[in-house]
Amino acid sequence: MKKRVLLVDDDKDLVGSTKVVLEANGFEVATAHNGKDALAAVSAQRPDAIVLDVMMDTDAEGFTVAYKLESDPATRQIPVVLLTGFMDHMAAKRESFDFIEGRDWPAVKLMKKPVAMSELLATIRQLLSEAEALKVAVA
Hints:
Distance between the termini: 20 Å
CATH superfamily: Response regulator
Number of helices: 5
Number of domains: 1
Largest sheet: 5 strands, parallel
Radius of gyration: 15 Å
Mean pLDDT: 87
Structural class: alpha/beta
Shape: globular
Order of helices and strands: EHEHEHEHEH
Low-confidence stretches: none
Strand order of the largest sheet: 2-1-3-4-5
Number of strands: 5
CATH topology: Rossmann fold
């Protein structure tokens, strides 16, 4: 059975090209272009992993989605990879995302855009393998 990855980014070209690569490597891929659609997609068919952009409709929308997923017992075990260029954005604007300070990180991995597809694939495979091993250990 193919593992399902939810790919969430407001850059439709990035979503399209990444989806092609993931599908060519044996994944089933669902897509969304904002946080609201991402949460609806998770409810409709629970993914095995989520690749989530940080800056979409707002500068921190991905964090908001990740925290919602983490706070829900039904979705907190889904591995989330945050893909972002927000570190450069923060440095350019000298901003800080105060609402994340002092909180547990809402994702298992943060990857800076642009990310090499080989690195993203390796990360997704590793996270799915770790999640599967955890299921076996708990059972």
